[in-house]
Amino acid sequence: MRDSDPDLDIDQFHREAVETPSHEAVGAMRDLLVETLADAGQDPRVDGAGNVLATRGSGDDHLVLNTHIDTVPPHVPFKSEADADVVWGRGACDAKGPLTALLAAFLRADVGDGRLTLAITPDEETLQTGAGRLAETLSANGYIVGEPTGLDVCTAARGQFEGTVTIHGESAHAADPESGANAIRAAAPILQAMESYDETQGPPEHEVLGLPTLTPSMVEGGEAPNQVPAECVITFDRRSVPPERSGEFAHALQNHLQQWLPEAFRVEVSLIRPDTPFPEAFATDEDADLVQTLARESGGEARPFGAATEAAHFAPDAPTVVFGPGVLTDEEGAVAHSEREYVHRSEIHAAAEAVTATVEELL
After folding, report:
1. Number of H helices, E strands in the chain
2. Same-domain pairing of 70 and 113
């Protein structure tokens, strides 16, 4: 039996969500979500990590609907013509469109003897501490993570983490460079070694996600024009594939790079934000009931997702998919995180219907 108001005004909630800035702080957006849930007869709570949680039912069969309320800067105002299908604005598709669809499904679905949890995080675009907390406190039979997928059911994604390679040399006067060990000069063999890492040390090509990437993105070094630099720092971006995990990567890369340097140099690899959870690579079996059911209800295909997501935090617990209205990119270029971010209202409605049907079938 339904125990909540199924009549969420999808278009109105989505408009209010996009009109509510959440690129610097999520308080106002969280209030909107909590108030909407309360008005629908739910009893939402906010945990210590800032997640909004609400649960319907109490059975052992348990599904979780997850997405986030934060957006990247800058805020882009809501824009849409009357009765038009397209909505522009920051968060339109990433991820207030998916949020609206999941919220509607949460309120509308008949959960039978099962249990359905809505779990909305505050910091997916930055630290992902909210998802880290949920991974420690939630356990379920399946997770649907809302992101713009064009209604496809995404079963895998590369991991994403960042770090630094610090080359330690020895400073000296530039008039006598041989008396020191130039850390900037040593960056050349290190960059070559980074290119060769996956050929010899990295994980093999994944059947769904392909090969990992290791991309140097910034180089810093030196303190004065007339001084041999004792330190050079290379910042990198790592997009991992299973079975590689962030915890093992830094040590493996450091051992590989050190072999390319003379004894006068020392290299140190460390991950940025090592005390916060990184989105690891994950892959869900495409034959899982969750995948097959949602793909059938949405009409979308099963495929990898093109960016790192909080889905990685839940995948070790149970089958996890990424799904929602909108797209990351289109034929003109970037959509999510861009000034032209948009979503089709009809896709939000279709996503809500697909998730509702999936929940009702699985629970």
Report:
1. 9, 19
2. yes
What amino acid occupies position 46? V
Looking at every residue in the chain, the average pLDDT score rounds to 95
By DSSP bridging, strand 227-228 and strand 172-173 are antiparallel
* Distance in angstroms (rounded) separating the CA atoms of residues 278 and 319: 19
Contacts of 117 (CB under 8 A, 6+ apart): 53, 54, 55, 56, 62, 63, 64, 65, 138, 140
The pLDDT score that the predictor gives to residue 6 is 59
pLDDT digits (tens, 9 = 90+) for 29-77: 999 999 999 999 999 999 999 999 999 999 999 999 999 999 999 999 9
Under the banding of pLDDT at 50, 70 and 90, the label for residue 210 is very high
User: Which candidate, 282, 345, 306, places its Cα nearest to that of 100?
Assistant: 345
pTM of the model: 0.88
Of the candidates 271, 304, 319, which is a domain's last residue?
271
Question: Could you tell me the residue range of the domain that residue 197 belongs to?
Answer: 159-271
Q: Are residues 94 and 201 in the same domain?
A: no
Give the pLDDT of residue 279: 86
User: What backbone torsions phi and psi does residue 164 show, to the nearest 5 degrees?
Assistant: -130, 145
Sign of CA dihedral 339, 70, 126, 319: negative
